[in-house]
Amino acid sequence: xxxxxxxxxxxxxxxxxxxxxxxxxxxxxxxxxxxxxxxxxxxxxxxxxxxxxxxxxxxxxxxxxxxxxxxxxxxxxxxxxxxxxxxxxxxxxxxxxxxxxxxxxxxxxxxxxxxxx
Length: 117
Prior knowledge:
The protein is an alpha/beta fold. 32% of the residues lie in helices and 23% in strands. It is built from four helices and five strands. It has a five-stranded parallel sheet, with helices on both faces. Helix 2 runs parallel beside helix 3 (63-73).
């Protein structure tokens, strides 16, 4: 399985990459520090089985908006939202079109991550 993880925090990206090393079903993990780079890569032909998307990038665009654009480009890509802010955005993830298959909170629990995979 080839997955992408999109989060503006470098520390989290590194933690996520380490977490993924323990799963034989994951062949490749491609990290992105912003949604624009992810979308550019997909438009250029990159393909992923799943995208793990942060919700709050601390900018004008949210992961929910990036996920909507991702869905418009390729509705087959599975999406898992990741957030450290469970008090914000939670209702919004259900209002935007996406192929959402999961929702994880930071720090990501290994057992729940395994269930999502």
